[in-house]
Amino acid sequence: MDSRRVLTFRAVAHERSFSRAARQLRVSQPSVSQQVALLEREVGTKLLDRRPGGLQLTPAGEVLLTHADAIAQRFELATTQLAELADQRRGQLRFGSFPTALAGFVPAAIARLRGQHPELRLLVDEVTPSQLEERLLRGDFHVAVGYQQAGHERQTFGAERRVELLQEQFLVALPPGHRLSDEPKVALRDLAEDDWIVPSTEGFVIETCRAAGFEPHIIAVTHGLAARGMVEQGLAVSMAPSLLAESFRGVALRPIDGPTPSRDVFALLPPGGQHPFAEDVLRALTDTAREQLRQSSGAALLALPHSR
Q1: How far apart are CA 21 and CA 11, in angstroms?
Q2: Which end of the chain has less Cβ packing within 10 Å, N or C?
Q3: What are the Cα distances from residue 288, in Å, to 99, 166, 186, 268?
């Protein structure tokens, strides 16, 4: 298939209009129509149905659009990487991380890296799990740190390489003077009647509470230091990621007695050309993760096997 025709079809499929696609591509509408017609002849089947209500994708069109989006994404990544080579901006590295890691071990890793390579300029940006794959494949990051729920099928997010850093477990966060704050471990079912602060109304915190036999009574949806402040004031109980344990001073953090929600933390490298300092960044992250593991108490942080 002609890649230019595939990308022209992609524009039409997203716009659901030959004229709007033509304006986007800055070509004439007859040219767009001709390119799509030639592509349909090339693949041997219709890709679009022309209906009174507008264009509709055929089943073959749906399949091709998925691949066309992937092709466009790789072209965009290649353009970014080649532009960097042309501009010789190799002393600048774009780094992405989810918020908890940015408040946890990532700053220590960056400090370690800057001590070894003071000439390297890191541009750090926060990225949520829902944005991670799109932004990594778009070329926003040379290295990114992400996570996924432990025990689930291993995801690579389209990355060229995934390096395991550690497994982070969650702790129960209780207000000072809570009836269970002196217990060495806390069973979640004993908090069924408490008010809860959760990071999201979906996800593994809610699932863990349900697995313990209750639906949490949620009074706030927030995380990090905002959750800590509300717990410290005695408004509710919550769960805290172990990477933020130091930030939760003033509240009682206790291991969970029973199944504990945990997540695998890893680093990702995008496909295509690797930044010259990417290996140094990975080394700083893994070394810092090992230090965190040595300093952690109990099973709050667990080692993971490193893999590609």
Answers
A1: 5
A2: C
A3: 17, 10, 30, 16
CB 242 within 8 A of CB 295: no
Question: Would you state the structure tokens that stand for residue 29, as one six-digit string?
Answer: 């509408």
Q: Which pLDDT value is given to residue 308?
A: 46
Nearest to 81 by CA among 67, 66, 70, 92: 92
Closest C-alpha among 119, 132, 56, 105 to residue 287 = 105
Q: How far apart are CA 208 and CA 65, in angstroms?
A: 38
Between CA 162 and CA 273 the distance in angstroms is: 15
Q: What is the pLDDT of residue 298?
A: 42
Q: Give dist(CA 202, CA 147) in Å, integer.
A: 16
CA 190 to chain centroid, in Å, comes to 32
- Which residues touch 264 (CB under 8 Å, ≥6 apart)? 147, 148, 149, 150, 164, 167, 304
The C-alpha atoms of residue 275 and residue 59 are separated, in whole angstroms, by 39
Averaged pLDDT, 209-219? 95
> Is residue 78 a contact partner of residue 272, using CB atoms and an 8 Å limit?
yes
The CB density around residue 41, as the number of other CB atoms within 10 Å, is: 10
Indicate whether 135 pLDDT > 80: yes
The per-residue pLDDT for range 152-206, each reduced to its tens digit, is 899 988 888 999 999 999 999 999 999 999 999 999 999 999 999 998 888 888 9
Q: Which residues of 287-298 are buried (b: 16+ CB within 10 A; e: fewer)?
A: ebbeebbeebee
Query: Are the C-beta atoms of 159 and 308 separated by less than 8 Å?
Result: no
User: What is the 3-state composition of the chain as percent helix, strand, coil, each rounded to the nearest 5?
Assistant: 45, 25, 35
